[in-house]
Amino acid sequence: MKNKLLLIWLVCLVAFAGLSLRAENIPDLFLHDGLSLNGEWKSIIDPYESGFYDYRRDQRDLESNPSRAEAFFLDVKPANPGERVEYDFDTAPTLNVPGDWNTQRPELLYYEGSMWYRKQFDFAGTGKGQRVYLRFGAVNYRADVYLNGKKLGVHVGGFTPFTFEATKLLKPGTNSLVVKVDNQRAKEAVPTLNTDWWNYGGITREVKLVAVPEHFIADHRLALESETARTISGWVQIAGAGAGQSVQLEIPELHEKLSARTDDSGHAKFSFTPAKLQLWSPDMPKLYDVIISSGDDVVQEPIGFRTVRTQGKEILLNGKPVFLRGICIHEEFPLHGGGRVNSPEKARQLLLWAKELNCNFVRLAHYPHNEAMTRLADELGIMVWSEVPVYWTIDWTNAETYSNAQSQLTDEIQRDANRASIIIWSLANETPVSEARTAFLSRLAARARSLDATRLLSAAMEKHAKPGTKNVNIVQDPLADIVDVVAFNEYVGWYDGLPDKCGKVTWEIPYNKPAFISEFGGGAKQGLHGDKDQRWTEEFQADLYRQTLPMLDKIDGLVGFTPWILVDFRSPRRPLAGIQDGFNRKGLISSEGVKKEAFTVLQEYYRKRAQLSEH
Ligand code: GCU
After folding, report:
1. Is the torsion defined by CA of 329, 330, 333, 337 positive or negative?
2. pTM of the entire structure?
3. Which of 77, 498, 538, 606 has its CA 20 to 30 A from that of 532?
4. Using CA positions, which residue lies closest to atom 10 of ligand 1?
5. Atom 6 in ligand 1: residue holding the nearest Cα
6. Cα–Cα distance measured from residue 456 to residue 452, given in angstroms and rounded to the nearest whole number
7. Which pLDDT score is estimated for 16?
């Protein structure tokens, strides 16, 4: 009760001070230059959260006078030789940002809990009418953020960007930015307690300080309405503006220069039909530099224009049927110590391996990957399936869990809405059919459609053995009525029998919609060779692929698949010593970056498919 009253009192105080504790997502801050805060940060590991809670478990930043000696976010030094201060960022070890902490220090590999990060930076001072924001690319999982000892706010969710306005708390000279990062898993969280991937903790993506004019370009959206009419329409959102503010949109290569005025809510609309527009496609990933300006503010980014829709059991890209030659990817890089992808170079390498496989599509599993990944996919001509971590047994009836999932979905779509490469938003993976689950996911679907009507919706569903039959697999899920693409994971030959079973199995997918296999595959320890019947050998995995591909070719309405997975990845659920050693070994490339035999099997299959198709 006492805490509740203190919280209400603090929220009033913060509101009075014009601060908001809730993080925002202002997409176009990504496009504004700023002061990078990447690099070495001081870090204090705090498994008992003693810098956050006092010994009575009262939250220190809710106290009117938090202890200088123990409240880490104050970042103080003893004022005199006698003063007791029980932490010191200056003498603490460092952690690199962006990056997970698990692969930076051996003792942190399995660490799940709280870690305090501190960065000091110099700031000249806020110019007249200027607003200054702190932008985080992502922090896994919960971030409590403080500037100069004062709380900026909290963000929950490990894979999407967030910002805080720092204008009022910044001071000229040296500033102290402290972030408490907590990656403890929880039943009501998204994802929940159990995942087949490593729960990497940390400030995993870039951090920057961005100064903008009072009225600045906060968001924009441009999309091709139809591949025949070739009309591009969209809008620009100017933060802080009312009606009448002038906004310019320019695409020099198309000789397009347009101007519009904002309405009462700072929104300016555009619609134009450029001559000679080259559409974006995997074969021709054409991007146009788009320049948006308003007042003193300018942003620029490369955007591709294409359409995607379904027609019966087909997916049409720019009006033509497309077959998705895909692969699943986790946001983890095998080399240089492993861990989360924390540079464009590592993202590029993963996508180049997919290209080498003759892929034109990737499923970024099971959460939004970093911006570099989706922007590189635009550039390299790789279509993308992007997903929110609504994975396995989420707490379906918990309202907090739903709003968390909806925020992650909203932030994902707002971040990447202008990426031509993204053609599918995925709502979930392998979630057990129940009324509560389907209600949860239909709300998410409605939300996704309200945010973006230009892309397809899907989810990785499950197949089941048809009751009373032998070797008949069926996909029957109320969610399939809600999404555009009926996608499901199948592991015939790995979790379900042996590879020979592929030849016996038939499929029933009773929907007049495109069918897609979002996962299949099996494990192999790279370098382990033997008979094809010996599990964990490269020969077994290759044989599984050789038997699976013809089985899938027989599926009516099949529009593609993304085998599980491009690269072996860390998973706490994979202890088999000498084989897995903490890695899921279903990769076509090992955790040392070495290709397995099955890589060539799929590569060859896709080469032939590519020859057959248009895209
Ligand atoms: C599941 C799941 C993956 C997992 C894979 C596996 O289908 O979606 O996250 O890693 O199967 O078991 O290897």
Report:
1. negative
2. 0.96
3. 606
4. 196
5. 196
6. 9
7. 47
